[in-house]
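Problem 12. The chain below contains 462 residues. Write out its predicted structure in token notation.
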Amino acid sequence: MTNGKKKFRLFDAVLMAVVVVLVVESAAPAAAIGTSQFFWWIFLLILFFLPYGLISSELGTAYAGDGGLYDWVKQAFGARWGGRLAWFYWINYPIWMASLAVLFFQTAEKIFGLHLSTAVSIIVQLIFVWVVVFVGNKPVSESKWIMNLAAFAKIFTIASLAILGIYVAVTKGVANDFSLHNLLPQLNVKSLSNLSVIIFNFLGFEVVATMADDMDNPKKQIPQAIIYGGALIAFFYLIAAFGMSAAIPTDKLSASSGLIDSFILLVGNLNWFVILIGVLFLYILASEMVSWALGVNYVADYAAKDHVLPSIFGKEDAKGMPVGTGYLNGIVGTILVVVAPFIPNQDIFWAFFSLNVVALLISYTMMFPAFLKLRYSDPDHERPFKVPGNKFMIQLMTWIPEVLLIATIVLTVVPLNGSQEEISAKMPILIGVIITVVIGEIVVRYAEHKSKVGTPVANHIN
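Solution.
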């Protein structure tokens, strides 16, 4: 973290919560659930988002520091489990970055009317990846303006989508049936498989907690940022969902182009306003990756110094920035971007995005039990913010989100109805998850072995 004068104010923290947690590009995959998505948004808002935000506030203020989520799991269950958490928390990032590189190129082609070759596509995507890597390696005090501008870009984009959706709904009607029957949950495999995207849309508040060293009063500012930011985020997600549902019939919604398609249908054509929205969306994709890098890189760096990830993750530059992890992000992202065009019969954005969603959700399955364990094993630790409620309420706030996480992971990766369509869609994700788990276990055990034979971990790049 940076030293000297604190430069990360409450205003910056709230905007960071918005830019980290408000994931605009996943509004379309969530909308693919149909109009029953509104039930699921509210359901998960109450039963997952609320306890998650409160628990993040308690852990983030009681155990403030660069380790964030990793520290909490390590203190509760030991270094090896902390290493597994750090691996899943990290690996989701370069996979996600590759998916957004694909989406960046597809969006640029659409709004500018381009039809470029595969070679040019790969070059553009690689530029996206490495710009994100180099900017993400900068201290938060130098890049906070990027996040602040991105927050306003997200707000403008979603507000425009909502206003246009309301206007079209009043003047021309909506593209989907908003009857009570359709608003109620549809308990079919296809709809339930997308619930993981809604939970994914709620994650990221612990990234704000890792910025504690750059705040004047983190014990007060972190809970405030989560409360204020959470209220804004919930509101924006719901109005974005309405705007998209008003524009496009569910069965015609594309996971990758759904946002831009919605604006085109709402406005009537690809005009200057849609192009402006498209340009803002391109900026949002890059800035989103920068904002998450600030949390993910620090966690991996911290874990490497604890000898639970290989030493390369712990390499830092002269300013103490975790550039080793940053460059690894770029390397993995590059490999995925180059390989992607040769994967047959797949929506590359959706395949990568689904895999990164599952990897991130797996890491959070360790957070809620860690919260409960620390409540009992470390009861005397100072907790400036404490989740309210008696023991029974604390148990509910721990295990309901945990069960929801596990259930959505299973629904996303396991073919349940045996149809050929579902098998072809889910098997690549399931195989990817299994490979990620196996590699992660090898990496963690390797780092553990190297630490026992005395290999140095922390290095600096000058």
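Discussion. Confidence is low (pLDDT under 50) at residues 1-5, 457-462. Students who got a different answer should revisit the alignment rule from Section 12.3.
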